[in-house]
Amino acid sequence: MIEELQDYLAKEFDIHFSDPRLLAEAFTQASYVNEHPNQNLKFYERIEFLGDAVLELIVSEYIYKRYPELPQGRLTRLRAAMVCEDSFSKFAKECHFDQYIRLGHGEELAGARQRPGLLCDIFESFVGALYLDQGRPAVEKFVQRVIFPKLDMGWFDHAVDAKTSLQEFLQRDGDVLIEYHLLEESGTENNPAFHVDVAADGQVIADGQGSSKKQAEMQAAQRALKKLRAKK
Amino acid sequence: MIEELQDYLAKEFDIHFSDPRLLAEAFTQASYVNEHPNQNLKFYERIEFLGDAVLELIVSEYIYKRYPELPQGRLTRLRAAMVCEDSFSKFAKECHFDQYIRLGHGEELAGARQRPGLLCDIFESFVGALYLDQGRPAVEKFVQRVIFPKLDMGWFDHAVDAKTSLQEFLQRDGDVLIEYHLLEESGTENNPAFHVDVAADGQVIADGQGSSKKQAEMQAAQRALKKLRAKK
Fold first, then answer.
1. Mean pLDDT of A153-172
2. 196-215 in A: which are within 8 Å (CB) of B?
3. Where is the active site (chains A, B) (predicted)?
4. What is the pLDDT of residues A4-42, one digit of tens each?
5. In a shared domain, residues B60 and B144
6. Residues A75 and A45 placed together within one structural domain of the fold
7. Residue A175: which CATH number?
8. Considering its fold, how many domains does chain B have in total?
9. B23 touches B17 (CB < 8 A)
10. What ipTM does the predicted assembly reach?
């Protein structure tokens, strides 16, 4: 399984481990080690401990530099959205890491291979192994492909509030007047519905709906961001 | 104040900032910025965000490599004891950073300069500024002087359990028989007192007291570690 993983990493990411034992350790769960007591195997947890800190720093530095005006509170929220089980487990799936984890039989039967907690751990331990084997530049190259593009794809917009993101996006190169207009208020008292649009310097970009004005505005801002980013 | 800080850092740590504005930012609290609205100042929070992640990685990597047998749970506890407000605020005091913080008047009067939370923040922001100005090697040099020696001084022993630390210390170079003996049990039922000693290969190293046998053994282990480390 580890040899297949090496081939896959070479083909897909141009990553070649000098010490494949690190890679094996990163993809081995304790349950597998317990089932193979004579093979003197190690499981991923220590490397995961390191990988977690590596990812934390690389992501922190990237968003610190990319958003020079973002205050600390929002940087922290954005980092928390990027460096978390939900994101990392998705990245692990996207990288097909789930296929290469070495699990014990019981864990396999219990469906551990698709458990977000495990997938997240394996993503971190892979990064830890890559860091130990090849240093930070190799991790940066990997992360630039797997994590950072998701920022532009809007994966983490919820963490920074779409209305503020839209404002920052539009006002990058100078002042722009952003207005939200209420187009329609309908529904019942217990089930209200709002329809708004958002305009930049008088030009409507997108509309949004929701059960509160704020929700409708957030949707409009998200849609506007999506349109503007697609144009870039 | 920042010029004095530069002189101090040069003299005490041989640290010379290329961009003193980073250093100024790292030592400036928001309250000071608010009181000097025309100076276009920045406060430390964004740099602190980065410094926090830098310290997390450097400490993680150090203990990962230094304790190759320590399982993840104990690595995590040790890191939490090292990378925390309590430790960082002490390091900041030890480095006399408290003297150079730029605070607003109100904060000064409220005693913020000695507040552990602020001292911790400033320690992190200093590291963030050093990292931005001179890269990781400069931070490592600083941390090797300010943080890592505390490991040998036993600052973080509580995080890893003194009995286990003693075992690791003594068994570094091979197997050693460690025994705890109960010397005396006294006190009352509601207020018991235990006195134990700890011996390595039959030779008593230290004794300890406590209101439970475990507490007494922990104290004996701590004292033994202290003695053995002092000998090294």
1. 80
2. none
3. 52, 124
4. 999 999 999 999 999 999 999 999 999 999 999 888 899
5. yes
6. yes
7. 3.30.160.20
8. 2
9. yes
10. 0.77
